[in-house]
Amino acid sequence: MAKRRKVIGQALILFVFATWAMAQVRHQRHHPPDNINEYIEHLEDPSRNQWQQPEKVMKALEIKPGETIADLGSGPGYFTLRFARAVGPKGKVFAVDISPGMLAYLKKQARAVHLTNIKPILAKPDNPELSPSSVDMIFICDTLHHISNRAKYYPFLMRALKPGGRLVNIDFYKRTLPVGPPVHMKIAKPEMIKEAEAAGFHLAKQLSFLEYQYFLVFER
């Protein structure tokens, strides 16, 4: 009986991952997504916590109260709300997204939990619309592969960072995985590092605790 329960449990876990993966593939092909509500449900699926490990990510970032953070590709606020709590009332979080629906949902979420330090920014696909020298950290999670002309995009990020600011990128390894977009849509880690360094960024740190994603921290 115990063995049977274990097999059933493993099957359920595989089913959850498979369902999440199929939804991820479907929405990655439509960015911004054609069904906002479905995509929000997909991004906020509790099963994501198992592999995204948000609390470990937050601890690794060592965010200080009073900092200003830009969450690029914020979506419904999976990390945005965590950042807002971490920087405190004297800090600020720019929620940057190209989807008005996502930002509208995020504003409702922020109001519901009484967070007043989040500023939504409706970006363009080729411009994050961040002011010069306005942020201490730009955080990008599972989003950079959506940007087609990254060579022209990186300078916007460089300009937006304050002196000593950080660019953080978390994205899927370029191989077949149970989550994430199709392999052909992904950016290989060496390629991403090469792109960022060509734009003037310096790789300061690599973290390896995420199973399906690389975690890179760059400095200006």
General description of the model:
Mean pLDDT is 88; it is low at 7-30. The protein has a seven-stranded mixed beta sheet with strand order 3-2-1-4-5-7-6. The protein has one domain (49-219): 3-Layer(aba) Sandwich (Rossmann fold). The protein starts with a helix and ends with a strand. It is built from eight helices and seven strands. With 220 residues, the chain is α/β, with parallel strands linked by helices. It has helices spanning 2-28, 36-43, 48-52, 54-61, 80-87, 100-112, 150-160, 189-198, and strands at 68-72, 92-97, 118-122, 135-141, 161-172, 202-207, 213-219.
Summarize the structure.
This protein has 220 residues and is of the alpha/beta class. The chain has one domain: Rossmann fold.
